[in-house]
Amino acid sequence: MATQRHHRLRARAVRLTDPLQPYLDKKQLVVQSGQTELKQVTTLRWDGPTAQKRMEAILAESYRSKSVDAVLSPYDGISIGVLAALKSDGYGSSSKPLPVVTGQDAELASVKSIIAGEQAQTVYKDFRLLGEAASDMIDDIRNGRPPKVNNRRTYKNGVKAVPAYLLEPTSVDKSNYEYVLVVSGYYTNAELK
Q: Do 35 and 48 fall into the same domain?
């Protein structure tokens, strides 16, 4: 029984749709391609050109008579590939506007795409703060102190809860990119031109 339960937990952990499942069940959100399992939606090496080819195939197979409303991308490099596929399929015109395309990591190309009104947003995690937190944890471990954590319950690996130190991510879009990314010194105005 414990083994079956463990497999069920692992299977549940790899379902991409868990937070979205109520919306899918009510048909408020429809994944036209039917691809919702992690193994179906994973992009090898997070590669933009691979994501572009995959999106081109999805558009050709599942969206000939319907339009795409949103693409939830886990990484900005993938978002750029998705946008290239959408644009080559005619999206981005007044008769066929670009869908909402999200991303993560506030990469330069995606921030420029946000400024241009293409990508809708990106999730920004300041690597300077991440590096500082990691460095502090390493120092604590090297000096025999327990590393500082601020979350002991959320992250589970199938066996136990894994303590973590979480930093607050920031959603960046056209309305706040300058304040979040330029004022903080992450990018300069010249880099974003």
A: no
Euclidean distance between CA atoms 58 and 162, whole angstroms: 36
Domain annotation covers residue 73:
yes
Over the stretch 134-157, which tens digit does the pLDDT of each residue have? Answer: 999 999 999 999 999 999 998 888
pTM of the model: 0.84
Residues 118, 173 contacting (CB under 8 angstroms): no
* DSSP helix/strand/coil, 100: strand
Angle between helices 108-115 and 76-88 (to 10 degrees): 50
Point out which residues pair with 11 in neighbouring strands: none
d(CA 183, CA 78): 26
User: In terms of Cα–Cα distance, which of 43, 120, 112 is closest to 86?
Assistant: 120
Q: Are 49 and 83 in contact (CB under 8 A)?
A: no
**Is the same domain home to 79 and 17?**
no
